[in-house]
Amino acid sequence: QSALTQPASVSGSPGQSITISCTGTTSDIGSYNLVSWYQQHPGKAPKLIIYEVTEWPSGISSRFSGFKSGNTASLTIFGLQAEDEADYYCCSYAGNTLVFGGGTKVTVL
Amino acid sequence: QVQLVESGGGVVQPGGSLRVSCAASGFTFSNYAMHWVRQAPGKGLEWVTVTSYNGHEKYYADSVKGRFTVSRDNSQSTVYLQMHSLRAEDTGVYYCAKALGGSGNHLWSPLSWGQGTLLIVSS
Question: Does residue B29 register a pLDDT over 80?
Answer without folding.
Answer: yes
